[in-house]
Each structure stands twice: as C-alpha cells, then as structure tokens.
Amino acid sequence: MVKQIRTPRTGFILWFLVTMLPVTLAAQLNPKASYGLIKRVVPRYATSFIVEDLPAENGKDVFEVENRGKSIVLRGNNGTSIACALYHYLTEYCHCQITWNGTNLQLPASLPVVKEKIHKVTPYTYRYYLNYCTFNYSMSWWDWERWQKEIDWMALHGINMPLAITGEEYTWYEVYKEMGFTDEELKNFFCGPAYFGWFWMGNLDAWGGPLPLSWMKSHKALQEKILQRERELGMKPVLPAFTGHVPPAFKKKYPNAKLKATNWTNGFADTYILDSQDPLFAEMGKRFLQKQTSLFGTDHLYSADTFNENEPPSDDPAFLSALSARIYEGMKQADTAATWVMQGWLFYSDRKFWKAPQIEALLKAVPDNKMILLDLAAEIEPVWKRTDAFYGKPWIWNMLHNFGGNVNLFGRMDGVATQPAETLNDKASGKLWGIGLTMEAIEQNPVMYELMTRHTWQTTPVDLDAWIPQYVLNRYRTNNTNLVDAWQILRKTVYNGAVIRDGAESIITGRPTFDSTTVWTRTKLNYAPHELLPAWDLFVQAAGKGVNSDGFQYDLVDVTRQVLANYAAPLQKKWVTAFNAKDSAAFNKYSKAFLQLISDMDLLLASRKDFMLGPWLSAARSNGTTPAEKALYEQNARDLITLWGDANSPLHEYSNRQWSGLLNDFYKPRWQQFFTLLQQSLRTGSTPDLKQFEENIRSWEWKWVNTQKAYPVVPSGNSVQVAQMLYKKYRNIEY
C-alpha cells in the first residue's frame, strides 16, 4: 500500500488511518466456515439458512436477518457476525438458547418468519474473551471436540478477540532448543498442564511437571486447529509475548545476564525475570515472536503482563516508563504492526503500588494506537474511573465474575445489565473500544454470560424486567410466570452482588474448623439464606408441573445445591455449640447430620455431568500417552482443585468445587476425621490437639492428590426426582 501513495495528501490520510484509528478487526466473510458452524449448531435445519456478505459499517461488525421464501437469510461482514445473526434468530424467533450448562434447540417444525428485516451494528470494535486462568481452571484437558464447541459458542455470542495461548510451551521449547538448552536444563522450567496460566505469567516454574514432550507436540497441533477455526470465523486471536520470565538454567547459560529472582509468595520457589535493560531482553522477545509467527501466524495482537501479582523492583515512574517502552520495543522488533494487549489486573490487585504516577508512566511509554488495556474486573472495581480512562489508551470493559472455578450462584446482575452501556455513553470513558469476559473459569452461572453478551449489539442498558421473561422462555420452553418470579428472587438474592467480591463458598469445602469461614472458603452471603427459599419453592413447583428442559434441570440442581450449601453454616453452629457445651448426644446428632448433608449434596450433583469430578479426571488422563503421563495428569487435575500446591500450600481450597465425587471422597472424609477427634475429646474430657490434626490432614490431603482412582463419568439418578426428594427432606428445617 505504501508504494502506491502518490501525493502528500493521500499519504497523510493513510498515516491517519493506520496510526489514529483502532486496529481493524474487519475480516472477509468465509461462507464455507459459516455454513460449517450452522451445520454444527442446527444440523437438521442447516439447509434452511442462506449466508450472504454484508459490508462493515464504520469499521464495526454488522448483521442482518430476513426471510427469502422458506429460507432465512443471514448477512454479515464476517463469520462472527453471521453466527450472531443465527443466534439472534434462534433466541428471538425460535426461543432457543445455547449455554455451557443447558441447551434448548427445539426449533419448531416450520421455521418462524422474519416479517421485517433485522439490522444490527455493534458499537464495540472488540469483544474480548478469556483470562490466563481460564485455560487451567476450566480448559486444562480440553480436546479439539470441546474446543470446537467453545469457539462456536464464542462466535454465537459475538466474541471476536479471544486470548489464544494453547501451545505456548511448544514455542518456548523450540526457542530454547535453538539457543542450545538441553531437555535436562528445561526440565526445571516447564510446569505441569494444570498450571500453565501461572507459568506463563511468571509465577512458578516446574510445578506439576516434568512436562512430557508428547504434550507439547499434541497441543501445538491443537493450537493450529484453534487458530484456524477462530480466524476463519473472523476472529483476531491474541497471542502471547515475552515479559522476561526465563528458565533457572538461564543464569548458567548466560552468566552475565541481568536476572532478578522474584517470588509469587504462594508457596513456590523463586522464578527468574530477565531485566528489560539487558540486551538479551529485546533479543528474547524478538526470537519468541518470530518463532511463534512461523508456527501459528499472527494477527498482531500480543498479550503481555508485567509483574502479575509481583511488585516491580522500583516505583520510580521513569523506571516503569523505560520498562514498558522496552517490552513494546521487543514486540516491535519482531512485528512492526504489533499491538500490546495488557490485562489491567495489577492495577486492581496491587493498588497500593500502582498509584496514578506509576500507572501513567507504564502506559504512556507506548504509543496510544499500539496498546489496548483490559479493565479486567470492571464490574467489581472500574479502574478506568481512577486513571482518566487509562490515560488515552484504547480499553475494554470486562466482567471477571468467577474466581477459581468455584461452584456457587453469584453475579452482579443489575450492574452488568446497566454498566457497559452507561460507560459507553459516558464522555469520561475515553477510548472505550470493547467489552469482554475475563472470568477465571467458565461452565457456571450461564445467566450472567447470556446477559453480558447481550450488550454486543446494543448501546442502551438491558431492561431486566423484560429480559428475564425471555430468558425463562428460551431456557425452559415455557412462559411459566412462577419461574419468572423465581428469577426475580434470584436477582435480588444470589445475583444482587451487593457486598462480597465473588461467590460465597460453603463451609463443607473448607478444611475442618470451628470457624464459620477459612482463608479461601469464604461463607459470607449477599442475602439472608431464607430469602432464597421462595425461589426453590417455585422451581420445585414448576418441576411438579412437568417443566423439564435441559437448562431447567441444571438450574433446579444448582438452586437446590445452593440452598443445601447454605444450610451447612447453621448446622455447623449447632455442632460447635454442642461441642463447647460438652453435649455428646447433641454433638453426635448434628455432626452426623452435617456428614449426611454432604452425602445428600453428592447424590444430587451426581445427576448432572456439570457437577461431577469423574469427567475432569477422565479428561486429564485421556491426554496421556503412557501410564506415567496419565498418572501425572491425574495428579495435576486433583491438585489444582484441592491443595493447589503441595501439602503446605497456602492456596488450598482456592479452586474448590462442589462436585459429586469430591464431596464424598475428599471433603466428607476430612470432616469425618475431625469429628472422630472431637468425639474422642468429649469421651475422654481431653482438649483436642488441633495443631496435630492440621498436620495429619495435610498429609492425608497430599496422599489423596497423589492417588489414582476412577470416578463415574456418566450421571446417575434423575435430577428432578432427587431434587424433589431433598426438598421434602430439607425445606422445613429452620435456619
């Protein structure tokens, strides 16, 4: 294009377009890819849809839907727009829904007519998706079949800017091998597959390894498929870049290199960061991006997060500015079109360090059109409001929502319904060019993700009073007003997001204690537990009237689970009170009821694959090519969701899950051992040795992590019947 410039005026116009406007995410429509998605989503009706091209409007994605005879015409400027057109038709005209946890695709025999052409233009250039943590808390063991479903979900919900870091370890392996590092030297660098998110962010080395080469090769091939599908649907994947994290062996290979040992302070050994002032820094950044581009291509968007939950060695703005400039320069040397995509998590998680001068210095060292900021938890604390909208940088409003993949009903429904549009229309929001989803884990609380992605094609807040009835109809295939009422109760209780940062846990998943909470098992609720019961009543009543869709079954189980999880707190108080009163009979009664509650929850959750341990472990083992690899991957899978690290890990229960199998085989035995100790104390009149118990239980947990055992992968029992049975058993128990 530059060679065709004839006059200074046209040269200026081209310069303005390239440097001052947002990075274009326009992509040509690939009809074959769009028809492929339609066939995967609604195979029986695939021939009823016609795909046609439609030019973007002002650089923004656009779609149209209209009738042509007996066919439905879907127009869009790329595959994601076509997918959104399809989902608009499915949700608005056929009253269907596609979520991780319940899908309704019962289309009418005769497709509904679109009487007037639908025309939608998104106000957002970018629709970002994923968080480094998602790749482990949810995606550690995914194969291509599961990835394919997710990419379709992404397209249907308007995602066009996904983080794509699968296979990064293979790129680094190639780079370091070319630099002369041996496999033995790299053994203490690459971590196990469940920990890549924190390895990539420089928080840990080697934990859960050594990583087999077979994994690297298989996931290099998987990344090729992921990127091909994302790109042919018009998405622009964000690939990783170098931020300084190097192997421990680096200091021996390059003894003059300027390295800084740093520690995440979560129970892991030091990692090593190459000083950005060292000439090797730019060289490493260039090598990595060149190798990555040769393997996977590029869309010129690169994720790089400096000092993730680690403080820089200096808060001097000049130091931070120079650091930022050098990181960008490393990208630029390999790709002159590089745009740095930075998670703004550090500005939220360590605001004591990152004050206005430090943030401004870090950001302003990079050209405005070469950096995009992710306001990673904008629904919790909008960093843009205290940074003058990131000091002129383009930025994206994100909903973080879930931490660690914890299982709970939670969300800020009213805030998510209004805040993106309010921010979009706020003159102080600067270069707000996108919205996104940055949860640490998915496959939970589907309502929050259907709600958030609703903003993709509108500039006004979502009217929840109008939206909830439509959500109920699409999910449950019924206009049952009781279920609409139930959701209004859920909106005001579990989804009010009033006080706590993220969803509350149940004390049953905490390491045994007399306390009502533990470090990572936080039990404070945004509502009084009894306020949730009327919603449970209405769900059970609807079940009695024959409502039985996939989404309804999931929600009935989830609401029942939440009620029972909440009940653990007052039940705990009863056995604690009995123990302190030295009332053995009462203690035995309530401790037995506590254990029975755990078993009842396990029975309930066994009826839905969404809430089972077996599929998680089975998927982990399926990645192994040898018995040793299968054992390693199972150990990784068990560890992440329990201890997280070793027996003394300070992160134990951070990623706890209320899952069938885990409840009966991990949480319940811990409480049984605790109650045995307390019962013995009551019998003998002695004081229980809680310190010794803590040591014993840590050892027991570590043994469990390193055990191999198969759990069911197929649900058992009828969700509706089990929920009804537990309703009769627990509904009238006083809180």
Describe the structure.
- By secondary structure, the protein is α/β, with parallel strands linked by helices.
- The chain folds into three domains: 91 residues, Chitobiase/beta-hexosaminidase domain 2-like (Chitobiase, domain 2, 2-Layer Sandwich), CATH 3.30.379; 337 residues, Alpha-Beta Barrel (TIM Barrel), CATH 3.20.20; 246 residues, Up-down Bundle (Four Helix Bundle (Hemerythrin (Met), subunit A)), CATH 1.20.120.
- The chain has 27 helices and 17 strands.
- Strands 8-7-17-16-15-14-13-9 form an eight-stranded parallel β-sheet. A four-stranded mixed β-sheet has the order 1-3-2-6, with helices on one face. Strands 10-12-11 form a three-stranded antiparallel β-sheet, with no helix packed on it.
- Strand 13, helix 12 and strand 14 form a beta-alpha-beta unit.
- Helix 11 packs parallel to helix 12, helix 12 runs parallel beside helix 14 and helix 19 runs antiparallel to helix 20.
- The longest helix is centred in the C-terminal third of the chain and has 31 residues.
- The radius of gyration is 26 Å and the shape is globular.
- The N terminus is likely disordered.
Count of helix runs? 27
| Helix fraction bin | 40-55%
- Overall average pLDDT: 94
Strand order of the largest sheet: 8-7-17-16-15-14-13-9
Give the structural class. alpha/beta
The CATH topology of the largest domain is TIM Barrel
Number of domains: 3
Strand tally, please?
17
Give the termini distance in whole angstroms.
Answer: 71 Å
- The CATH superfamily label of the largest domain reads Glycosidases
| Biggest β-sheet strands, sense, barrel | 8 strands, parallel
Spans of at least 5 consecutive residues whose pLDDT stays below 50 are 1-25
Radius of gyration: 26 Å
CATH architecture of the largest domain: Alpha-Beta Barrel
**What percent of residues are in strands?**
5-15%
| Gross geometry | globular
CATH class of the largest domain equals Alpha Beta
